[in-house]
Structure formats: C-alpha cells, structure tokens
Amino acid sequence: MRVTFLGTGTSHGVPVIGCDCPVCRSPLPENKRLRSSIWLNFAGRNVVIDTGPEFRLQALRYGLRRLDAVLFSHAHADHIFGFDDIRRFCQMQGEAISVYASPETLKTLRCAFGYIFDLDRNDWTIPRAVPHVLDGPFSLFGQDIKPLTVYHGKTAVTGFRIGGFAYVTDCNMIPDQAMAALQNLEVLVLGALRYKPHHTHFSIGEAIRVIETLQPKYAYLTHLCHEVDHAELIASLPAGIQPAYDGLVVDL
How do the domains of the chain map onto residue ranges? Predict the structure, then answer.
C-alpha cells in the first residue's frame, strides 16, 4: 500500500491568512500545509480519507486521476468541503463514487451536499455518491478496514486501521477499545496540533506519549498548525517519529 499525504495542516491551513509569523513566511516547502487528507493506493485502487476545501488542488498537484472510494473521518468543514470535487472523477469514470462514513457524518453530508446522493439523475453534471454506513469492520477492494471511534472534544471522529497502517486525526482522546486496536502497527499517523495543550486536539507532547504507548515501528504527526516549524520539530522528535508534510509518500 502506498500512502500520499495530500495535506497536513489545520482548519486554517498554513500559511494562515493575514499572519506574518516565521512559519507563515517560511520558504520551506514543508511549512506550507493544505487541509489534512491522505490518498491510499492498494490493489490498483485509489481511496481518499477526507475531502478538504483544497481537494481539487491536491488531486492536481499529486496526480490523482482516478478515485474509487472516499472515507470520512468526521464532518467538520476542513474535512468535507471539497466533496463536490468528486464530480470530475464521476464524469471521467462514468460511475458514482462509494462513500463510507459514520451515521452522524453521513447525516451532515446529506444536509450540506444532498444533491450528491441523488442517484436518479441520468447525467454527470453533478457528482454522485453511494453512501455506506460505517458500523464495524468491512472489506474494500480486498483490503480489511477497521473503523475506530476516537474523540475530538465531544465530537466522535472515525480513525481507520488498514492492515499495518492507521490514520487517526483530529482527536484528544483515544478510548481503550481503539487503543487496543492500534497495537502492532507498522505506521501510525496521528494528529498533533501544536506544542501548547488544546481542548480538542492532542498537543505534540501528548501525541508523543500515545505513540510511545502504542510503539508502532514508525509514526508521523499531522494536522500541524502555523506555530510548528517543520525543521525545528523534526530535530526535536524521538527516533521513529517524524512530522508529515504535504506530498510525503510512505510505502508499506
């Protein structure tokens, strides 16, 4: 399986509008972060987790030319507001795209993008998606996927374990059941907003402690805000933990 990081930033993205901090003014490519999303390629299929506001730009930048399914972690704007951009894939492929999300997330998607779920139309002027409710482990293109419930403040968020890989973003609490399901990983991607504590996101220190408890072979921090400089962070992290960056490719 190949994992491509389409975006590794927060809801603001980096640089932040109107900000002149050192990270926002940094020429370092790794400090330029679109909204968080990843592209998984396995069994000759392309699956995306979350479609943030820059999804079209991400697809163009990293060469995503076919889309077979979308998994959603939750329904916050920075994770769903590029959903309409599946339209071009529907047109090229002549088919509706399968979408997997929790009942709560699907409810919001239907509210914001009800037209996408209208499968009675006979043209491709609008995108079309086939909804699938996440209510337990399932198989997608021959790959076993285990949804995991974590918490982003009071909001339930879906993390995903796919073989030896797991993607868990936007959370500040991982219940015991999910922690148990995250054992024996090859690669863990975990959200870590900034150095200072936050009421709905893990700080970098908190994320490190979770990683040290789970002991994956490798771990990457994502959903990083403009208070975090890539070069400074990478120099301070323990062995086996790195900050992710837009365009990073990891092969498992």
Answer: 2-249
pTM over 0.85: yes
Dist. CA 142–CA 123, nearest whole Å: 30
Task: Count other Cβ atoms within 10 Å, centred on residue 16.
Answer: 17
**Under CATH, what is the fold of the domain 2-249?**
Metallo-beta-lactamase; Chain A (3.60.15)
pLDDT in tens, 86-133: 999 999 999 999 999 999 999 999 999 999 999 888 788 999 999 999
Site of tokens 């299929």: 45
> Is cis: bond before 197, omega within 30 of 0?
no
Chain mean pLDDT for the chain: 97
Confidence of residue 173 (pLDDT cuts 50, 70, 90): very high
- HEC string of the chain? CEEEEEECECCCCECCCCCCCCCCCCCCHHHCECECEEEEEECCEEEEECCCCCHHHHHHHHCCCCCCEEECCCCCHHHHCCHHHHHHHHHHHCCCEEEEECHHHHHHHHHHCHHHHCCCCCCCCCCCEEEEECCCCEEECCEEEEEEEEEECCEEEEEEEECCEEEECCCCECCHHHHHHCCCCCEEEEECCCCCCCCCCCCHHHHHHHHHHHCCCEEEEECECCCCCHHHHHHHCCCCEEECCCCCEEEC
